[in-house]
Amino acid sequence: MSKDSVQSILMLLKCCTREKDLCKGHRMHEDILERGLLKKSIYIGTALVDMYAKCGMLRKAWLVLEELPARNVVSWSALIGGFAEIGRAQEALSCLEEMQIQRVIPNVVSWNSAIMGLADQGESERAFVIYAQMQEQGVMVNSVTSICTLKACGITANLRSGKRIHAQLHTDVGSIYCEFTVLNAVIDMYCKCGSMVDAQYVFDQLPKCDLLGWSSLIAGYVSQGELKRTFRLLGQLIEKGIQPDGITFLSVLTICSHAGLVLKGQGYFQDMGNEYGIVPDLTHYNSVLDLMARAGQLDEAIVIMDKMPC
């Protein structure tokens, strides 16, 4: 089989994966089996595993993996990532353990996928255990590793583990600590854990901050019910020429609703479209309806409801 033939098949499988076209992917699988290519190319086998995993056909992906004459770290990582993506963290961990039993050394992608699955399930302690195991085995963590682990801490409000990771970012992997995505994850973790002093401290140390960092901090103060700080931050954000997005406005509308600030909330809702060209979605409409209902303005709420796109 020529190198060009392998590349053509890989490109077609990649298209099926990207489009999540199981029908065409299955037909390609049958053709590959008929031509006996599965046992001739680890790359084709790995691409098949990845295609089925990305399409959510995890059992099929597992069966293909078992048929491969050799299993490499890429094929295992594809299966682990597939389980993690649909929230099946236990299966992702089982794959991580099995590949090590079979003497395939996980790479950073494999570890990150397992941590991501645990983070999405809110299992911060287990995510931190995997994070520690990864470091014990000498695998260099990257920004994705840190972001996923911090996310797990934020979901379960595990401030203690979050602070440990933040400290390690300073000492062990200082190079990635300077990345905005990691710093934003640190701020978001502290906000979700209710530690606004720490979140504000990290925010204040930044030479500059992007919208994600601002939005995380604003959402944190909203969750604490701190009106003045929320509106002050929004004003500072606009003064710096950073355009707020729908997430930022949703946070502000939420605190207006809880505080009964009807006129202020209506003003922000109108500014979304008139000043910033943001089309309100269902969450924004629900927030405004909640604001009006709490204030007893049911007639006005019905008028707004009639204008909703759905």
Structure summary:
The chain has helices spanning 3-19, 22-34, 42-54, 58-67, 73-85, 89-101, 108-120, 124-136, 143-155, 159-171, 174-177, 180-192, 196-205, 211-223, 227-239, 246-259, 262-274, 282-294, 298-306. It is mainly alpha-helical and 310 residues long. The radius of gyration is 24 Å and the shape is globular.
Helical content (DSSP H or I, runs of 4+): over 70%
Most strands sheet: none
What is the multimeric organization of the chains shown? single chain
Q: What structural class do the secondary elements suggest?
A: mainly alpha
Quote the distance from N terminus to C terminus.
54 Å
Q: What would you call the shape?
A: globular
Residue share in β-strands: under 5%
Query: Total strand count, please?
Result: 0
Compressed to H and E, one letter per element, the order equals HHHHHHHHHHHHHHHHHHH
Q: What's the total helix number?
A: 19
The overall pLDDT average reads: 88
| Rg value | 24 Å
Which residues form runs of ≥5 with pLDDT under 50? none
